[in-house]
């Protein structure tokens, strides 16, 4: 009875019903599955391709879609793109992607440590001042694209895992897509005790995330 009369819970329950529909439905909704599939696969979490022997692997260096999340760079960088066993990276940046593939194979696609190690690796490549193998896709273009994608992967890894709230049950985020051209806004409303919310502003093929933490007063 106390839970039913708690004003904070009543407000939260009413808000969730208005925004997300019946809260009694399965937490893994089709919208959630679709958006996570698009965002995560577009955020350079490539380990699944490396771990699946049925996925076509690369034996040649490529440079495609260098300024979008659909980038394919070298033999190991890109969505669903990885080098064949025994292949060497095309350059140092491609080597960072190879190392990331190997890391997530061992620790899982949601490993923030693997994603952070990848970002540190490509920052070192950038500071080295060296040129990559491709003139069509220079480091100045490829590296910022990869960093943006990996930042999204890190954001969703935090939401998906329970590291932020040790001891709390893992609850999947609910996603509410709303149309607001030229931007598409997606509000992720989690059910964690601290009411963490995030607004993703997606413009064209890039996304920028602003986490908002609301405290109870």
UniProtKB/TrEMBL annotation:
Keywords assigned: Calcium, Disulfide bond, Hydrolase, Lipid degradation, Lipid metabolism, Metal-binding, Secreted, Signal
Record-level Gene Ontology MF annotations: calcium ion binding; lipid binding; phospholipase A2 activity
GO cellular component term, pick one: extracellular region
Group of enzyme by EC: hydrolase
Domain of life: Eukaryota
Coiled coil: none
Cofactor(s) of this protein: Ca(2+)
EC number: 3.1.1.4
UniProt entry tagged with the keyword Transmembrane helix: no
Disordered, as annotated region: 1-25
Family designation: Belongs to the phospholipase A2 family.
Function per UniProt: PA2 catalyzes the calcium-dependent hydrolysis of the 2-acyl groups in 3-sn-phosphoglycerides. Releases lysophospholipids (LPLs) and free fatty acids (FFAs) from membrane phospholipids in response to hormones and other external stimuli.
Descriptive protein name: phospholipase A2
Organism annotation: Phoenix dactylifera
């Amino acid at each position: 009875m106390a839970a039913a009369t708690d004003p904070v819970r009543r407000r939260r329950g009413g808000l969730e019903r208005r925004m997300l529909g019946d809260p009694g439905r399965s937490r893994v909704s089709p919208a959630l599955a679709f958006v996570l599939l698009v965002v995560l696969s577009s955020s350079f979490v490539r380990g699944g391709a490396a771990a699946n022997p049925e996925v076509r692997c690369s034996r040649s260096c490529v440079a495609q879609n260098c300024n979008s999340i659909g980038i394919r760079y070298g033999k190991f960088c890109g969505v669903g793109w990885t080098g064949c066993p025994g292949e060497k990276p095309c350059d140092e940046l491609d080597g960072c992607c190879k190392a990331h593939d190997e890391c997530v194979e061992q620790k899982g696609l949601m490993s923030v440590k693997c994603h952070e190690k990848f970002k540190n690796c490509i920052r070192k490549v950038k500071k080295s001042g060296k040129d990559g193998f491709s003139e069509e896709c220079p480091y100045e273009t490829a590296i910022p694209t990869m960093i943006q994608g990996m930042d999204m992967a890190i954001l969703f890894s935090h939401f998906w895992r329970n590291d932020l709230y040790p001891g709390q049950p893992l609850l999947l985020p609910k996603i509410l897509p709303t149309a607001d051209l030229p931007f598409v806004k997606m509000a992720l409303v989690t059910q964690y005790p601290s009411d963490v919310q995030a607004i993703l502003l997606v413009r064209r093929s890039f996304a920028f995330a602003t986490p908002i933490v609301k405290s109870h007063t």
